[in-house]
Amino acid sequence: MNWKVFTSIFICVLIVLKINLYSEDNGRYTGPISRSEKRILDGKAEFLKSGTFPLEWKLFFKGKQGDFVVFYDLNGDEIHYRYRRNKFDLDAEVFVKDLFSGNPYRVKGEWIGYYFYSVDERGKRSSLPTPKKLPAEPKEFADRQSVPIFKLIEYIEVRTDDLLY
After folding, report:
1. Using CA atoms, how far apart are residues 132 and 102, in angstroms rounded to an integer?
2. pTM score, whole prediction
3. Do 107 and 71 contact (CB within 8 A), yes or no?
4. Which of 42, 65, 102, 117 could tie 145 with a disulfide, CB 3.0–4.6 Å?
């Protein structure tokens, strides 16, 4: 068999397998965080109804930003978790050293506030957020652009027990 033919067949098989692995319709493996998992916008809607915001999430790790580690959901919405008091807090650096960008985690925290991007009289949204403390103003917090802020308590990497074959 020709090497080029073998390579093209191999690539086609990989594409078919990838489509099957990530297909929602046939009930097969779709990733470590299911599509039915609660999203940040769902949590904001829950806050509007009941006044409570979930404290545990299944999210993907994005990276560090200052004193915060940033996680995102399947929609791309973010939650910032404060993990250290200041840049000299070396114990906190050790606490988050195992986080890896793109990996899914079950994250627990204490809700301490949110970032709100205000809108001026012309209808333009500010590029710099205003940090707000609790209690949250429901209309501000429910805004799609607002970002919840938590104090990081615990994170556990989400792993699947499914066998892929």
Report:
1. 28
2. 0.76
3. yes
4. 117
